[in-house]
Automatic annotation (TrEMBL):
<protein>
    <submittedName>
        <fullName>Ankyrin repeat protein</fullName>
    </submittedName>
</protein>
Length: 95
């Protein structure tokens, strides 16, 4: 059985190894943030958003990372993405 830390490590090292853009879609049209959201990898999701991953990008089926988190009942990721959006709106509403 793979531990969550191993999943985070594999996601991050694959990004570094192949220099994949953080919002680049894989073969199935999902981003690393989609994977992190589905798996409940909050630390990885936080790291990816800090690196500029697009939280609104949709896969081939029209799902955003937040929608995948909701579908898989990943409440920590859902809350994190909602807070991220709120903080983003607050920052740019002042401009």
């Amino acid at each position: 059985m793979i531990k969550k830390n191993e999943i985070s490590y594999k996601v991050i090292t694959s990004v570094r190894r192949y220099e994949t853009p953080y919002s680049n879609k894989a073969a199935r049209s999902i981003t690393l943030l989609h994977k992190a959201a589905w798996l409940g990898e909050k630390r990885t999701a936080k790291w990816l958003t800090e690196k500029g991953a697009d939280i609104d990008v949709k896969d081939n089926f029209g799902y955003t990372p937040k929608m995948l988190a909701e579908e898989n009942n990943q409440t920590e990721i859902i809350a994190f993405l909602e807070r991220f959006v709120l903080s983003y709106k607050l920052i740019f509403s002042d401009l």
